[in-house]
Structures
1.
Amino acid sequence: MAQVSELSTTRHCRAFDLPGHGASRALPYPATITQYTDRIADAIDAPGVVAGHSMGAMIALDLAVRHPHLVKGVAALNAIYRRSPKAAEAVRRRATELSAAGDSDPEATLTRWFADRDTPERRACREWLTGVVTEHYKTAYEVFAAENGPADADLARLSCPALFMTGAKEPNSTPEMSEAMARIAPHGRAVIVEGAAHMLPMTHAVPVNAELAVLVREASR
């Protein structure tokens, strides 16, 4: 992960596997976003800056709201907030298709993320998607599809610096979503990266790492 590689040169970094992914024990089905958050909260041994991407952004924000003693700053990368009816229906349909299928073919997902470009990032994501346990991926995706972003009241009571960052070409976790959340969070700011889409942390690591470094400095004041 480009963020850990860069930031760990000056800071102590930890990267958590989503429950049911990597070597992490799975949650019972069906799961909720709070169960994912609480599992990660149990593994944090000191307050710090928390960053998450996509579903990880939901978890990072939930962690900052419900476990504020653990979070000195939060970064939500490509986070969803108030999906349109059309987008909500599309993500629910994808969750249903995953549940109905056997082992899923990741090509449709990769095309959404990378179009038809064959890049090292696309190949890495394909390896991850084909290596994950299918039932655990479905469990997580159903949670992702059911969520609609943090409540306004929760955003309004975020006491730490909050970065909302997404790509200008992101059709699902849109720039408008990040900007709306940043307006509500007391110490929020939005950063939109030109030319970037959903896999922003991989495809545009340099600006992401730079903004995370700024957030770490803000949280350390």
2.
Amino acid sequence: MTRHPGAMLNVRRSTASRLLTPGTLVVAFTTFAALLTSSASADVIGSVILQDYRGAVATPDGVQEPKPIRFQDQVSALDTVQTGDGGATSMQFLDETRFDVGPNAMVKLDDFVFDPASTEGAGRISMAVGAFRFVGGKMKSDENVKLVTPTATMTIRGTELVIYVGLDGTTEVNVVDGSIDVQVCDKAEVVPAAVGQRVVIPPTCSASVTVARPVPTDLAGLDVPDDLGDFATAAGGDEGGPGDDGGPGGDDRGGRKNDRDQSEPDPEPAAPDPGPAPEPDPDEGGEEGNPSY
């Protein structure tokens, strides 16, 4: 069979011209870019280890509809995990770090990378609200893992932590094992804490270190404490208590009293009632006595 190179070349050019039209190139490039973006945002960083499903869902980055995450389901970088009333989940990351999530919680799994050969890695987890337990795994460089809340950024060192985040951003970190450095809000200030201590950071960003509270040992008891709103007082906030003298931050009654004291003086006390005048002695006459008849 005789081949004609010129004819074959023309066929190839014709085919290429049909396939690589401007519109086709745009569609192909867009599809390829989407695949790259999807691949980059879907890096698996762990899986669910809680056998009983308790209502937890995950929303991948760029997706509107959440999906249930059950036992052995994978979680990926940039997933937002949420639980409802009575909900919970427990995840294990690449280095066997365990991360528990209590009810009514929201957390974003920003990233988590780990090299088993060198045991080096890094990660970032952003907790918006709820109760959480973090138990470090095999990562040698765990200080590269950042735990973030609205008022704190934690650097960990071989740590087990129980963290509570309130609706107003108040953060309480209880150190069960290891140690942490806590950056307060966006300040340069770093507050260290060790085993048996807790760091409390209210929205006013005034941190305090106190004795750790008793924390649950299992997922069933992991929940935000009822007194989370009192942390501003515990951390030296502006909230006054009973018996306040009405100064700044005092209770409502004290504040009203203080306003009254500054605006108008108290009235002068009334003179005591002298009672009825004594009867004059009739034997004592005189000018001021009663007349004699």
3.
Amino acid sequence: MDKIRNNTIVKRVGFNTVVLFCVLVLLFVLFAILTPIMKPNTTFLSYSRIVSIFNYAYFLGFLALGVTFVIATGGIDFSVGPVMFCCALISGQLLTKSSWPVAACLLVSVLVGMAFGTINGVLVAYGGLPSFITSMASMMIAKGVGSVFTRTQSVSWPGGWYQNLIKVQVGGVQVPTGIIILVLGSAICSIVLHKTMPGRYILCIGSNREAVRLSGVNTKKWEMLAYIISGGLAGVAAIFYVGVYTTVLPGGGDTFNNDAIASCVMGGTSMAGGVASIGGTFIGVVIIALLQVGILAMGYQSQYQYVITGVIVLAVVYADLRSRRRRN
């Protein structure tokens, strides 16, 4: 085990990320083997199922990337799912009822998400409110604002050029271009979090907030930035959601909070803050999407996904706790 940990590639990528990738491959193989057994005349290894995994991973990926920044500070954001729906509802209403240009509506989606992130950041960083309570309140406000703005009516986005961000038809085959954008977005987030001054301050705040403050750093500003990034990426996630599913219902999005946070924790981001892995978050998102599609392919209801995800998250959190105790 020590030889594996000390391998140059493993050190660069991260041991936890390598382990998580092995779990992803193992789950894929298990679904490929068990699906025909559990549901005869059905195969998991089909192009349509791979596309379905990607479709779920697009919007969940951007939600999880944003939440990673918040958890890195030692906080939590339970509002991202409903904020995503609120962004999609408001921008979709402007598109379908007020005939706004598509580009303007996409920009509104991101701005609405950033507005919610700013409110969360101000209340937590400058107001001293617990992030758990603040984000729970924002979750309810986002549900209410989306419902009021659309008068509790669902919004269906019409087809348009924005869908090329998610998928492109080439010779009758659907090419999932969204995965390219998600990978690029993950790379940018990784650079921001680990290679820039704001990202390092965000991680340091999660490690030892008081020491960072005493060193002269404006911790409140950088902590607020983490919530703004989370909100903005929730707005981006809304664009990918409507690009795949087109119709948005008011008052939804709760379950995506859990999936996004689970992806982060599964990927090696510590709930105590100070430790985060964008690559791990990306793999965690793919695992959640794989469970979602694979369990349905086997003929079971999606509730089984929550059981498996919960068990994995508990195991990861326990392992992280043991690791911290050993280091201390």
